[in-house]
Amino acid sequence: MLRAAVLLAFVASVACAGPTYFGHAPGDDWGVSVHEGDPFFPAWVDVGVGATVKWTNYGATPQVLRSGTPAHPTPVFSAWIAPKLAFRYTFTRSGTFEFFLQDHPDVQGRVTIR
User: Fold this and answer.
1) How many Å apart are CA 109 and CA 70, to the nearest integer?
2) 12 has pLDDT over 90
3) Is pLDDT above 70 for 65?
4) What is the mean pLDDT of residues 50-71?
5) Cβ-based neighbours of 71, under 8 Å, separated by 6 or more
6) How many angstroms separate the CA atoms of 69 and 54, rounded?
């Protein structure tokens, strides 16, 4: 009976906390890995208003990250990310924000802010 109560409390706390993943603590950046020509990982992030997303370049060459799509770039953010460095952006309003690598337009992702 105690096990069931503990499990129910855990499930309720996770359900009320919003999107998360194991190893992520409140206030931590939500990480996205960048490699030249490879897909982003994860390719989509679903978080709340005020969340900070960090794109880290694990490749050997600099990358230019742009918001929007290759056909329709937007002025929300744009960053030149050197190898082994990162770019952070804090989302202050809800919506869906797409992003891509300028030199590899087929590498695209999305951030949904609720």
Assistant:
1) 11
2) no
3) yes
4) 95
5) none
6) 19
Phi/psi for 31 (5° steps) reads -90, 140
Do residues 53 and 45 lie in contact, with contact meaning Cβ atoms separated by under 8 Å?
A: yes
Residue of 99, 55, 95, 92 whose CA lies nearest to 74: 99
Tokens of 57: 């370049």
Neighbours of 22 (CB within 10 A): 4
pTM of the full structure:
0.75
Instruction: Read off the pLDDT of residues 26-58 as tens digits, 9 standing for 90 and up.
Output: 566 788 999 877 788 889 999 889 999 999 999
11 in Cβ contact with 3 (< 8 Å): no
Which of these, 114, 112, 108, lies nearest to 41 by C-alpha position?
Answer: 108
- Burial class, 32, CB count within 10 angstroms (exposed 0-12 / middle 13-18 / buried 19+): buried
Domains and CATH numbers, the chain: 24-113 (2.60.40.420)
